[in-house]
Design brief:
The chain is an alpha+beta fold. The protein has a single domain, classed as Carboxypeptidase-like, regulatory domain (Immunoglobulin-like). 21% of the residues lie in helices and 33% in strands. The strands form 3 sheets. It has a 4-stranded mixed β-sheet, with no helix packed on it. Strands 3-2-7-8 form a 4-stranded antiparallel β-sheet. It has a two-stranded antiparallel sheet with strand order 5-6.
Length: 150
């Protein structure tokens, strides 16, 4: 049981953040938001990494999260288990958590910490406005510090 709790510990802050953002969800599914994540040169992701893009609302709307596929860095945002994000302005955060069961996970976590701090929900400068009227295809480029619509 101790091993199990150690494996889950790094993902608890991410889970708690997602739960807070999705609290009180309901209503429509929102606008589909799909995209790609671009990481800085020299940052290598493992297939077992947990990589999330979080859409934190600037107003009273419900936020959304997207689990990034570490193989191709693609994602689809969901809100309350439904695909899509309510139209509006959002801060965009990125969190990369190495799987704690890997031999080099502590070393990789320490290397990724500055990036995770820079793009945390409380410190990120990334913003995006989800627009109604069709799917939003975006690129979240943490190498350049930008979010752009494709």
């Amino acid at each position: 049981m101790l091993l199990h709790s150690r494996l889950l510990r790094p993902s608890l802050p991410t889970f708690a953040l997602g739960a807070l953002l999705l609290a009180g969800c309901g209503g429509s599914a929102g606008v589909p938001v799909k995209g790609k994540l671009v990481v800085p040169q020299g940052v290598t992701l493992a297939d077992s990494d947990s990589v999330q893009v979080v859409f934190s609302p600037e107003s009273g709307k419900v936020g959304a999260t997207a689990q990034v596929d570490p193989k191709d860095l693609s994602f689809t945002a969901t809100s309350g288990g439904k695909k899509g994000v309510a139209p509006g302005k959002y801060k965009v955060a990125v969190q990369i958590t190495p799987y704690s069961g890997m031999p080099d996970s502590s070393k990789r976590a320490a290397k990724l910490d500055p990036l995770n701090q820079q793009f945390s929900v409380t410190k990120t400068n990334l913003t995006y406005e989800v627009t109604a009227g069709g799917e939003n295809n975006i690129t979240v480029d943490i190498a350049k510090g930008s979010v752009s619509k494709n």
